[in-house]
Amino acid sequence: MDMKKVNLFLLAGFYIIAGLNHFRNPEFYLDLIPTYLPYHDVINVISGIAEIGLGIGVLFQKTRKWSSYLLVAMLIAFIPAHIYFIQIGSCVEGGLCAPQWVGWVRLLVIHPLLIWWALSVNAIDKGLKS
Predict the structure, then answer these.
(1) Is residue 58 situated within a structural domain?
(2) HSE toward the beta carbon, residue 122, CA cutoff 13 A
(3) Domains: count for the chain
(4) pTM summary value
(5) What distance in Å separates the CA atoms of residue 91 and residue 57, rounded to the nearest whole number?
(6) Domain range for residue 74?
(7) Measured between alpha carbons, how far is 20 from 122 in angstroms, rounded to an integer?
(8) How do residues 94-117 score in pLDDT, each as one tens digit?
(9) Rounded distance, CA 113 to CA 14, Å?
(10) What are the backbone dihedrals phi and psi of residue 2, each rounded to the nearest 5 degrees, phi first?
């Protein structure tokens, strides 16, 4: 299988599984939503639906470009959650706890890589057909 297709299917699978996890394990995400934002349950559901829909959207050439751009927009919208995680000491009571540096790596390294990954599928349209 072509590496471009592997990249595409991995990206789609990553977001579809992550989106499904919002419904399977909502507690994990609810505590990561900044306290200053209202309607945590609604934010979690919308995030899950968006991840599933955009994960599916990148699989089709007609929707790939906009789906990847919307993934980037979604990832940018998630930045406050990463900052909040750092502000609360990278530890959610009864949930995710990590060393403080992990929160910074997520924000400054992993998150930009996820943005790059989402944009990378736009470059493969020349060689892929849906």
Answers:
(1) yes
(2) 13
(3) 1
(4) 0.89
(5) 33
(6) 3-121
(7) 24
(8) 778 899 999 999 999 999 999 999
(9) 14
(10) -60, 140
